[in-house]
Design goal:
five-stranded parallel sheet; globular; two-stranded antiparallel sheet; binds adenosine-5'-diphosphate; 7 strands; about 50% helix; alpha/beta
């Protein structure tokens, strides 16, 4: 089963992806995590993506789509895929449709996680992430066992440089103007599931699994 997690920054895509990959035995592709890892390690991809991410803009489509294909090429046939943060516009969605066809595969469901803007801002300002693993925490809603340390790996947690209130507003506007059109795109394909993302993380996971028939 191949699934896209759709929703504005802070909706809980990464948090749900972490839980769902275990439940669905799926591979996660989180474009934001891959960019951050490359920026931290100063790779060519990281150098090319950094200025866009710092400004809260989208990284150019070609770079992003190539990165997704490189990743998909390494996924064994038949393994479920969970996309988090991709696609983010119509060009990427069309490229994904084409690419999945080439793999003789398709997207089965798009899970649209809905959360109002004021909650998004509160969530993002308390977010902490592990750049090595992509694990996500919140200082109030989902604190790590030891402050500043990833529970599972012991790697340090950081606050993302694009998680300031000003940049978050830019990113939410970008979502509303560029990414939200995908809700209609996938609704027309008949594969959209809409989930209330304001409940607790565990409740949201339960609602998603139920909607997927799991
Ligand atoms: P969030 O979880 O807050 O929505 P992400 O971690 O998914 O943020 O993405 C962080 C940043 O990485 C985005 O603001 C954007 O600059 C870049 N990015 C991630 N995914 C894509 C994509 N599919 N296309 C273009 N840029 C992307
Ligand atoms: P996204 O990937 O959509 O940008 P994240 O999964 O990173 O969102 O979640 C954003 C922040 O909100 C994180 O700090 C996370 O711990 C927290 N969070 C996620 N889901 C919930 C929830 N259902 N209730 C409260 N806080 C949440």
């Amino acid at each position: 089963m191949n699934i896209i997690l759709l929703g504005p920054p802070g909706a809980g895509k990464g948090t749900q992806a972490q839980k769902l990959i275990k439940e669905l035995n799926a591979v996660q592709i989180a474009t934001g995590d891959i960019f951050r890892y490359n920026i931290k390690n100063e790779t060519d991809l990281g150098k090319q993506a950094k200025s866009y991410i710092d400004e809260g803009k989208l990284v150019p489509d070609k770079l992003t789509i190539d990165l997704v294909w490189d990743f998909l090429d390494k996924v064994e046939d038949g393994k479920s895929i969970l996309l988090d943060g991709f696609p983010r516009n119509i060009t990427q969605a069309e490229a994904l449709d084409e690419g999945m066809q080439k793999r003789n595969s398709k997207i089965d469901y798009v899970v649209n996680i809905k959360v109002p803007d004021d909650i998004l801002i509160e969530r993002i300002s308390g977010r902490r992430v592990c750049v090595e693993t992509g694990a996500t925490y919140h200082i109030k809603y989902n604190p790590p066992k030891v402050e500043g340390i990833d529970d599972e790996t012991g790697f340090p947690l950081i606050q993302r440089s694009d998680d300031t209130e000003e940049k978050v507003k830019t990113r939410i506007d970008l979502y509303n103007n560029t990414t939200a059109v995908l809700i209609d795109y996938y609704d027309k394909e008949g594969i959209l599931i809409t989930i209330d993302g304001t409940k607790t993380p565990d409740e949201v996971t339960k609602d998603i699994l139920k909607a997927l028939g799991k």
